[in-house]
Amino acid sequence: MPGQNTWRLHPRGRNALDLLYEPLASLPKKTKPTDSVLPRVLFSGTRGYIENVVFQVNASYDHGLFDCCAVMCRRLLETLIIELYEGVGRSSDIKDRDKNYFMFADLLRILEADRAFHLSRNGQQGLRDFKKLGDLSAHNRRFNARKPDIDRVRDGIRVASEELLHLAKLI
């Protein structure tokens, strides 16, 4: 407005100011994507929310938040089992009478008993091995997961995830 002491910040100037003042602001730091636990390329192009969970699995591992990593792995596996049943129009098989999805233990039990889906021995073992860690991290207040705990089940999670992605026709 003519005659007033006003100014406008040009978008290019904002980028320079962001770099200058970002350390002083209490904004969350951006975490670089990695493949620490699960390879992102395996989940790329599936569903945005699945890709985001995989990002959080890897980021929590990278930052030493191993209980968080285990819980996010559990969420990923639950999501993939749900995607599988929804994809074939059988979501009611994994819901209770109030139409809520079952928890991980029941999802796993139903999947293992279901003859329509065949997971390899390694995929099944990966799910079972992870279930123990996932239960401890999610439900045992005296247990704190550590890096070796995640490292021990990482390959099984990856195998089970890829098999579930294939069965759900997401890759």
Could you characterize the architecture of this molecule?
The protein has 171 residues and is an all-alpha fold. It is elongated, with a radius of gyration of 21 Å. This is DUF4145 domain-containing protein. It comes from Candidatus Sungbacteria bacterium RIFCSPLOWO2_01_FULL_59_16.
Write the SSE topology.
Layout: H1 11-21, H2 40-43, H3 48-62, H4 66-87, H5 104-113, H6 121-139, H7 147-167
Helix pairs in contact: 3-4, 4-5, 4-6, 4-7, 5-6, 6-7
Can you give me a brief rundown of this structure?
This protein has helices at 11-21, 40-43, 48-62, 66-87, 104-113, 121-139, 147-167.
> What's the mean pLDDT score?
93
**What gyration radius follows from the Cα positions, in whole Å?**
21 Å
Work out the helix count.
7
The domain tally reads 1
